[in-house]
Design a protein that fits this description.
It is globular, with a radius of gyration of 19 Å. The longest helix is centred in the first third of the chain and has 30 residues, at 57-86. The protein is built from 10 helices and no strands. By secondary structure, it is mainly alpha-helical.
Length: 239
């Protein structure tokens, strides 16, 4: 690992001090921008497709909730990295967008679970997770607003707790179609966390994390499209 670090030292800076932000190199800034910017249009198109496939008002509302979370994640992330790269002298704006970038992770987690919690039949107790997941997202948003970059381990714990808690409800559904893809997507996210916490240790670590996010989001989108929005008639027609 040390030999690799020396070879790619010009592509990355030293790890950030405790409770401080990592400062990417210009190469890393570019990679951070492009790895999410290229996903904005596919996210918008995919969200519009789910809305078009909706059969009733509740499906349309759910498609809107999921689509907004998906598109906003990539848009806010891209804007933040552009501001951080090109407008580093605007510290207040950069700080604001960095907070929004972190907040969007909570919103995106809630939005990713929304189709499964809204469109699948749940038990009387499990159904409370439909609104509780958004309560957790609101709590995470408030936490970022109050303690941004102060307790990174606590913040990471909140992300993971919010990601795994609804899974206990989703896996208890009587209809388990698509849950294998949900699990695979969750595993990809978890593997990506290794790179999320490796800035200054692995070159382009954050950009690699973006790739893991894109891959996991694609897996989850495929499952939502196939098992929640694509009609059985369409499936039979393409067999």
């Amino acid at each position: 690992m040390r030999r690799l670090q020396e070879r790619f030292r010009r592509f990355m800076n030293h790890p950030a001090p405790a409770n401080s932000r990592y400062k990417p190199t210009c190469y890393e800034h570019a990679a951070n921008c492009y790895t999410h910017a290229f996903l904005i249009v596919p996210a918008i198109v995919g969200s519009a497709l789910l809305h078009r496939l909706s059969d009733d008002r509740w499906e349309k509302i759910t498609a809107w909730m999921y689509g907004v979370g998906l598109c906003a994640l990539f848009i806010v992330s891209t804007v933040f990295h552009i501001v951080s790269w090109k407008k580093s002298h605007l510290r207040t704006m950069e700080h604001c967008f960095h907070m929004c970038d972190r907040m969007m992770i909570y919103v995106f987690i809630a939005a990713s679970y929304a189709p499964w919690l809204n469109l699948r039949e749940l038990g009387p107790l499990a159904s409370h997770m439909r609104w509780f997941i958004w309560l957790m997202a609101a709590g995470g948003t408030i936490y970022v607003f109050l303690y941004h970059e102060k307790y990174k381990i606590v913040e990471l714990f909140f992300y993971l707790a919010m990601g795994f808690s609804p899974a206990l409800v989703v896996t208890s559904m009587s209809n388990t179609d698509g849950l294998q893809e949900v699990a695979w997507g969750g595993l990809i996210y978890c593997l990506g966390v290794v790179f999320f916490k490796s800035d200054g240790v692995i070159p382009f670590a954050h950009a690699i994390w973006h790739i893991f996010v894109a891959t996991a989001a694609a897996v989850h989108y495929y499952a939502i499209w196939k098992y929640l929005y694509r009609s059985p008639a369409d499936i039979i027609r393409h067999l």
